[in-house]
């Protein structure tokens, strides 16, 4: 079921997943074609929501994808579908994606919101950039290995410089869309006037933090799409 007139948007459309980056951004051409197929115009106000186990994780990733490809007029539905269903005048449907006219959305990539491996190496060395990591504390401190870490000890050594630069944010604070600074304690340590790059394990919960930061006034936090999955493997290959 879904909100009446809502259109399903696949985050995998036009992507080329790999072991290092399981959930990459799609190509610009593929994203533009798909967005137009779903009726998105240059002046559309896109509202995104999901019904995920971690509420908002997919909606926030789509929110970031749209902004990264140049569509800034996008909002996240406060409370997601479960909250919307409780409204007395909620319009819920079980029908498929409705027909729509082809949109005229044109991609204009916002590179300031995107971090790849090469740019992350520069970011790690830049004292003026704050890096926030949303993974669980036990993974952040290497008490427990992530699935991509075949040799936990080697990965820790290879990425010690990056880890020292990261601040940990527990994702449970990001599941509430009425976000205020006091609901995310780590923000007391963050300068919202300075550049911020956010990362996670697969490039999804980082987008939740980017949305939270946007709500708190920092509108251009960059997301490292490959996140720890790519970073740990690339550093291991380099023997760094």
Walk me through the structure.
There is one protein chain. The longest helix is centred in the N-terminal third of the chain and has 12 residues, at 57-68. The protein is of the alpha/beta class and 240 residues long. It has helices at residues 28-37, 57-68, 80-85, 117-125, 137-140, 152-158, 160-165, 205-215, 227-238; strands at 2-3, 46-48, 74-76, 92-93, 114-115, 130-133, 166-168, 196-199, 222-224. The termini are far apart. Helix 6 crosses helix 9. The protein contains nine helices and nine strands. Residues 150-183 have low confidence and may be disordered. The strands form three sheets. The chain has a five-stranded parallel sheet. Strands 1-4 form a two-stranded antiparallel ribbon. It has two domains: 2-110, Rhodanese-like domain (Oxidized Rhodanese, domain 1), CATH 3.40.250.10; 112-238, Oxidized Rhodanese, domain 1 (3-Layer(aba) Sandwich), CATH 3.40.250.
Number of helices: 9
- Average pLDDT works out at 80
CATH architecture of the largest domain: 3-Layer(aba) Sandwich
Q: CATH superfamily of the largest domain, called what?
A: Rhodanese-like domain
Spatial order of the strands forming the largest sheet: 5-9-8-6-7
The level 1 CATH classification of the largest domain is: Alpha Beta
CATH structural fold name of the largest domain: Oxidized Rhodanese, domain 1
Structural class: alpha/beta
Give the helices and strands as they follow along the chain.
EHEHEHEEHEHHHEEHEH
> What is the terminal separation in angstroms?
48 Å
How would you sum up the major sheet? 5 strands, parallel
Q: What is the count of structural domains? A: 2
Q: Rough shape?
A: globular
Helix content: 25-40%
Strand content: 5-15%
The residue ranges in which pLDDT falls below 50 over 5 or more consecutive positions are: 150-183
| Computed Rg | 18 Å
**Extended strand count:** 9
InterPro entries: Rhodanese-like_dom, Rhodanese-like_dom_sf, TST/MPST-like
Organism: Capitella teleta
GO molecular function: thiosulfate-cyanide sulfurtransferase activity
Keywords: Repeat, Transferase
């Amino acid at each position: 079921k879904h909100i009446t007139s809502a259109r399903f948007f696949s985050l995998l459309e036009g992507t080329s997943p790999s072991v290092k980056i399981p959930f990459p951004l799609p190509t610009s051409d593929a994203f533009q074609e798909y967005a137009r197929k779903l009726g998105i115009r240059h002046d559309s106000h896109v509202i995104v929501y999901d019904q995920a186990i971690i509420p908002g994780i997919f909606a926030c990733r789509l929110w970031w994808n749209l902004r990264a490809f140049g569509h800034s007029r996008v909002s996240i539905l406060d409370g997601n579908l479960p909250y919307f269903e409780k409204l007395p005048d909620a319009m819920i449907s079980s029908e498929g994606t409705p027909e729509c006219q082809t949109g005229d959305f044109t991609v204009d990539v916002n590179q300031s919101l995107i971090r790849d491996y090469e740019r992350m190496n520069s970011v790690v060395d830049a004292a003026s950039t704050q890096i926030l990591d949303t993974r669980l504390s036990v993974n952040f401190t290497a008490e427990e290995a992530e699935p991509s870490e075949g040799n936990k000890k080697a990965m820790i050594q290879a990425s010690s410089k990056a880890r020292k630069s990261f601040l940990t944010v527990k994702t449970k604070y990001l599941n509430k869309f009425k976000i205020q600074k006091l609901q995310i304690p780590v923000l007391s340590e963050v300068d919202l006037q300075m550049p911020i790059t956010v990362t996670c394990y697969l490039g999804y919960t980082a987008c939740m933090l980017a949305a939270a930061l946007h709500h708190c006034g920092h509108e251009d936090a960059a997301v490292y799409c490959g996140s720890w999955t790519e970073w740990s493997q690339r550093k291991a290959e380099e023997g760094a």
